[in-house]
């Protein structure tokens, strides 16, 4: 929704205001002389470790409200505890690390696969070689495409822990089988009456510690129209998570206990209506950090 960012900010302020009203209740003798103030900190509100650390510093008598729209925390606490948070900020404000994933589509036939694209969600950082530093970019992962010998290679860059979406095909050839499979696995309680549907694969790379190991979570997604309205179904129940070393290649297809599903899901549709099985491989690389950590 277009106003979701404003709503998130409003919710953060409502949380702070609500806490102020609660403090109107009787206080203990120890709290009576404590003066509390509101301050903001430019910290990642989606990082659970940061939230837990700041809340521990603030204690039960303060408030920590994430303002996700503006990537900051709103904190109400005493001057002494604000000083503790300020001292901890340099260690908490870690520059997010990014993972570049090379995605290779290999067709079973000789014809060139068309219509493959890569999209992304979340914030990514992209280095401009002409200038020092980085530029913050919203949505749309980096997408460069080369085509040789029937193979399509694409590059996407995404922050560790965030997701990017690989568009497998604009149509789903084995939709009937896939719906039956999802019903049999109790992922769906009733069949979805798709009017138009395409297949995507969601990729979520997360750097383990300082690396070089990377956890890659994959799960299918179907999106199109139902009843004339856009509809997306994330099939998180069919997720597969594997650990890959930096620079190592992961072959996708026939993964885990849902191999039968993936073998029919990872199929592309040609412009002439024919289908081809897609062999997909992912090779993640941890990008160097630009700027202070």
Question: What's the SSE blueprint?
Answer:
Layout: H1 4-22, H2 29-32, E1 36-41, H3 48-58, E2 63-67, E3 72-78, H4 79-92, E4 98-107, E5 117-120, E6 123-127, E7 134-138, E8 144-148, E9 151-159, E10 164-169, H5 175-184, E11 196-207, E12 213-226, E13 229-234, E14 240-245, E15 250-252, H6 259-265, E16 267-269, E17 275-286
Antiparallel strand pairs: 1-3, 2-3, 4-9, 4-17, 5-10, 6-7, 8-9, 10-11, 11-12, 12-13, 12-14, 15-17, 16-17
What are its keywords?
293 residues, alpha+beta, 6-stranded antiparallel sheet, 6 helices, 40% strand, disordered N terminus
Gap from first CA to last CA: 33 Å
Structural class: alpha+beta
> Kindly state the mean pLDDT as a whole number?
74
Number of strands: 17
Strand content: 35-45%
Q: Based on CA inertia axes, which overall geometry fits?
A: elongated
Largest sheet: 6 strands, antiparallel
What is the CA-based Rg, rounded? 23 Å
Query: H/E order of the elements?
Result: HHEHEEHEEEEEEEHEEEEEHEE
Number of helices: 6
Q: Quaternary status of these chains?
A: single chain
Determine the fraction of residues in helical runs and give it as a percent range.
10-25%
> Can you tell me the residue ranges where pLDDT is under 50 for at least 5 consecutive residues?
1-9, 15-32, 109-149
């Amino acid at each position: 929704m277009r106003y979701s960012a404003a709503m998130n900010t409003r919710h953060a302020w409502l949380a702070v205001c609500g806490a102020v009203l609660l403090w109107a209740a009787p206080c203990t003798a120890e709290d009576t002389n404590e003066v509390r103030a509101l301050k903001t900190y430019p910290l990642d509100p989606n990082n659970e470790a940061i939230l837990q650390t700041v809340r521990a510093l603030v204690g039960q008598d303060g408030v920590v409200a994430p303002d996700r729209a503006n990537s900051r925390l709103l904190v109400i606490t005493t001057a002494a505890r604000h000083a503790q948070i300020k001292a901890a900020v340099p260690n908490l404000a870690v520059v997010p690390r990014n993972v570049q994933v090379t995605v290779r589509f290999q067709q079973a036939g000789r014809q060139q696969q068309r219509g493959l694209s890569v999209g992304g969600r979340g914030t990514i950082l992209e280095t401009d070689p002409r200038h020092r530093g980085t530029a913050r970019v919203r949505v749309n992962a980096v997408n460069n495409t080369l085509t040789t010998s029937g193979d399509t290679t694409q590059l996407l860059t995404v922050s560790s822990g965030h997701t990017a979406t690989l568009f497998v095909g604009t149509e789903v050839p084995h939709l009937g089988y896939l719906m039956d499979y999802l019903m049999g696995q109790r992922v769906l309680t009733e069949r979805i009456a798709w009017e138009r549907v395409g297949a995507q694969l969601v990729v979520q790379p997360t750097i383990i510690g300082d690396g070089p190991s990377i956890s890659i979570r994959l799960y299918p997604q179907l999106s199109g129209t139902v009843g004339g309205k856009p509809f997306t179904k994330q099939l998180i129940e069919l997720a597969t998570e594997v650990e890959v070393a930096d620079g190592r290649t992961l072959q996708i297809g026939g993964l885990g206990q849902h191999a039968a599903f993936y073998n029919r899901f990872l199929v592309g549709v040609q412009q002439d209506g024919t289908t081809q099985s897609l062999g997909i491989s992912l090779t993640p690389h941890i990008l160097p950090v630009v700027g202070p950590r």
